[in-house]
Design brief:
Its cofactor is pyridoxal 5'-phosphate. The protein is an alpha/beta fold. The chain is built from 33 helices and 22 strands. The relative contact order is 0.10. The model has no long low-confidence stretch (mean pLDDT 95). The structure holds 4-amino-1-beta-D-glucopyranosylpyrimidin-2(1H)-one.
């Protein structure tokens, strides 16, 4: 009832507004107060970290007032809330983006200035929470930003990993992993909610019993329980009052042990129990590694999903809504299969704990969930060994069996006598060791299933979910990914943002499709000059940073040709590398060769257990070592491996790119999102018809996109008919020479064995058709060089790319999720007192 009390409402609104008073003096005063009251430091001895914390708390205070107001509104109006369930949220540094979204940047800059502090230096101190591997985790973060900015009630649910994705060092050209201690200085961006906690069961057994009403019930007698505690991160919308929450679960031991009656033995056992429980949310798993035996990973998935669903059920209770209305109050999106055990867990909670019938529970479950698939790569499709799951989650396996039985009955009714379909669609893979197919569980338990780019959604229906698409055609749809223009234009490319304001007015800031009008000015000489000036400055900044980190001097006039993303064979960084080697050979052979001076920049992490990817990093480093100091080429060719690519480094890299490398084997990259970040910032793309590249090319126009390579269909056909990499080698001398130079130890300080595994793989199997696409790629790169020579043409193409990037805003994507999947609507949060 407190939320209906007008005096309370007035008080809270006035707190919100007061802390908001757009006065630099108030802001400055608040920073100093936080410095003293939170850091216990006077200004004269405060460290930069103290100042950073004081500033961050000052910003946070302004968000918390909005957050409280948002939560109050959601509860009051019984609105439907979008819940994004994801094992990863790669949110990046928070201070800059919160300042931007609150519109406080100038105020903060001036306040810090008069306190003798440089805002940019403080922003640089922030350690980013690396709670994700790459695209999938970053997408989740962009979606939270858009949800808040579009004023849509939403909660992100995930795991508060103590150690996120490892930090990458490059030592002697090799990747070396360092543990990510993002919490070592504390983080000002989380609110701990000890009162919001749930218990999650593991192991044990189940038994049946009859309750007082004579109903047959199942009880899960767990072997142990873990407690999940909520850690909330506020998510501020852009220039609106909506502030949503990212709720991350940290695992804890259930009871701190009882001091009254323990003996020494029990004591240590109790401590051990505590250690084991706290291990659950300890570390993020790097992807691209075999899942086998990763018990802890399954435990993590179940842990956060169970906490999230229990939390949603609690919110129903708090707002006095009967559980039958669950699907009217929540839409839950499964970000890949990582949270897909949620389908069985919601069934368990509804049946075992809320006593709903199977039919009612199933109807709620299917209407609540929707599933996004992010990959077709067979090695990334999650399956869990049935015995493992049975020992860890016995009750959930029973429920999965029941779901499966009912589902397969349905299949048999639809396709009588077709046992092939039944075996293919079963939730259990019965070939060899039995496994639970998580993509099937997610598909069966959801009312909508989507891929992340048009091509990917089509392939999904034709390949891994083919039988399901045939049976439930209306369940499938596409939602092409998007990225947030707040972080990836306004925050990281302020020069471009100002130029866009000057050219178009400010409407593009809340409606990115307005960038379209820029195309009308693509040939305008004044705009082109200003455009180039912005780009020059961004490139100079990146060049300076590269100089500091790697010692490599990069002239900013060179074309910056950039490939940053996780290192993977399917993304084909080695195709890029082979082209560099052949270019290097041509330049050496013919010093007068007229090619555009280029700096090739790479960045990205390899999974610690993925040897081939690590070897690719070593190859790139080896090429850099040779090329950068060769007097014959050093003015025309530079190669850089930028270490530790993460969100923060992305801020400086994307705006400095002339050329964006999106060269995956067609059919393998589900969407890509880096491709969109580059495009928004005015880079041209060289790419295959893969993932969202297809749509990027459609938007930009074929003339403004460098296309090469086989199509997904051609790739599939070639692999069907028996691909022979040797065939392409025989036909291409440059390719032979490039591979030969690697084999001779030229890029490994004479070591002829180092790159053997990589060469053998390319020559004998080449699973991602690097050799087959090489010639076309090299020819396309030649066209890039020619286009670069014509400054005006290049500027025109660059402007058009930015102009046509509006479709790749995550705002567009989120609107599609809301309309086509979630059925959620915006709720305006008004801070003025009622
Ligand atoms: C990635 C895909 O590889 C990208 O093509 C896609 O753009 C993003 O997801 C977002 O949809 N992905 C990932 O980062 N991790 C996975 N386990 C699977 C897909």
């Amino acid at each position: 009832d407190m939320i209906n009390d007008t005096s309370v409402a007035q008080a809270s609104a006035s707190i919100a507004l007061a802390s908001d008073a757009a006065s630099e003096a108030v802001f400055e005063h608040d920073v100093v107060r936080n410095l003293i009251c939170r850091q216990a430091r006077y200004p004269d001895i405060a460290t930069p970290q103290d100042w950073y914390m004081a500033l961050a708390y000052t910003v946070r205070d302004r968000m918390l007032a909005r957050w409280a107001e948002s939560v109050k509104n959601y509860a009051l109006h019984h609105v439907k809330v979008a819940c994004y369930l994801s094992a990863e949220f790669l949110i990046g540094p928070q201070l800059g983006c919160n300042l931007l979204n609150l519109g406080l940047e100038e105020e903060a800059r001036e306040a810090m200035d008069s306190l003798g502090q440089d805002l940019d230096a403080l922003l640089a101190i922030e350690e980013e929470p690396g709670l994700g591997n790459g695209g999938l985790g970053r997408l989740a973060a962009c979606y939270l930003d858009s949800l808040a900015s579009l004023e849509i009630p939403a909660i992100g649910y995930g795991i508060r990993y103590e150690f996120g994705i490892f930090d990458q060092d490059i030592v002697d050209g090799w990747q070396v992993e360092r543990t990510d201690k993002w919490l070592k200085m504390g983080t000002p961006w989380e609110i701990i909610r000890p009162d919001i906690h749930y218990y999650v069961s593991f192991g044990g057994y189940t038994r049946m019993w009859n309750d007082e009403q004579g109903r047959l019930r199942v009880e899960w007698v767990p072997g142990r329980q873990v407690k999940g505690v909520a850690y909330d991160v506020p998510v501020q919308g852009y220039r609106v009052n909506t502030c949503n929450v990212l709720r991350l679960w940290k695992s804890e031991a259930v009871e701190s042990f009882d001091f009254d009656d323990f003996n020494a033995g029990d004591y240590y056992e109790a401590v051990e129990e505590k250690v084991v429980s706290e291990t659950l949310s300890k570390v993020l798993y790097p992807n691209d590694e075999p899942e086998s035996g990763k018990r802890l990973r399954l435990a993590q998935q179940y842990f956060f999903v169970s906490c999230a669903l229990q939390d949603m059920l609690r919110l129903m209770e708090v707002s006095h809504t009967p559980v039958e209305r669950f699907a009217d109050r929540f839409a839950a999106q499964l970000n890949d299969t990582h949270p897909s055990i949620a389908v069985a867990e919601l069934m368990r909670l509804l049946i075992d704990e809320r006593l709903l019938s199977w039919e009612d529970a199933w109807s709620i479950t299917q209407r609540t969930f929707a599933y996004t698939n992010h990959t077709l790569l067979p090695e990334a499709l999650e399956t869990w060994s049935l015995p493992l799951m049975q020992s860890m989650l016995p009750r959930l396996v029973e429920i999965i069996f029941e779901i499966n039985q009912r589902f397969l009955d349905e299949v048999r009714r639809a396709l009588p006598g077709d046992e092939g379909s039944v075996a293919r669609m079963s939730l259990i893979d019965e070939q060899g060791d039995k496994k639970v197919r998580m993509a099937h569980l997610a598909t069966v338990g959801s009312h909508k299933v989507n891929g992340v780019a048009a091509l990917h959604s089509d392939l999904l229906k034709q390949t891994i979910l083919r039988d399901f698409a045939a049976m439930f055609p209306s369940r499938f749809l596409n939602v092409t990914n998007g990225v947030t223009p707040r972080r990836f234009i306004m925050q990281s490319n302020p020069g471009l943002a100002r130029l866009l304001d000057d050219t178009l007015g400010e409407k593009w800031r809340t409606d990115l499709t307005r960038l379209d009008a820029l195309a009308d000015h693509a040939d305008d000489a004044t705009l082109q000059e200003a455009w180039r000036a912005v780009r020059r400055e961004n490139k100079a900044k990146l060049a300076a940073r590269i100089g500091n980190i790697t010692g490599i001097a990069v002239p900013p006039e060179m074309m910056f040709d950039i490939q940053v993303k996780r290192i993977h064979e399917y993304k084909r960084q080695h195709l890029n590398a082979l082209h560099i080697i052949s270019l290097y050979q041509r330049l050496r052979r013919d010093p007068t060769l007229d090619v555009a001076p280029r700096c090739f920049i790479f960045g990205g992490k390899a999974a610690p257990g993925y040897d081939m990817a690590k070897l690719m990093i070593r190859l790139i480093s080896g090429i850099a070592e040779v090329v950068n100091q060769d007097p014959a080429t050093r003015d025309r060719l530079k190669v850089v491996f930028y270490p530790d690519f993460n969100v923060k480094n992305g801020h400086i890299i994307y705006p400095a790119a002339d050329l964006s490398e999106q060269i995956s084997t067609a059919g393998k990259e589900a969407s890509g999102t880096g491709n969109m970040k580059f495009m928004m910032n005015g880079a041209l793309t060289i790419g295959t018809l893969d993932g969202a590249n297809v749509e990027i090319r459609e938007q930009a126009g074929a003339d403004n996109f460098f296309l090469f390579g086989m199509t997904a269909q051609q790739v599939a056909a070639l692999q069907q008919s028996g691909y022979r990499p040797g065939h392409y080698l025989e036909a291409n001398e440059a390719l032979r020479e490039a591979l030969d130079e690697i084999a001779q130890g030229r890029f490994s300080r004479g070591d002829k064995a180092m790159f053997r595994p990589l060469l053998d793989n390319l020559l004998n199997a080449d699973p991602f058709l690097v050799l087959a696409d090489f010639a076309d790629y090299a020819a396309c790169q030649q066209r890039v060089s020619e286009a670069w020579r014509d400054e005006k043409r290049w500027a025109r193409m660059s402007i058009i790319n930015t102009a046509r990037s509006g479709a790749f805003s995550s705002d567009r994507a989120i609107k599609e999720y809301c309309e086509n999947i979630w059925q959620t609507r915006a709720v305006k949060i008004d801070l003025a007192a009622p």
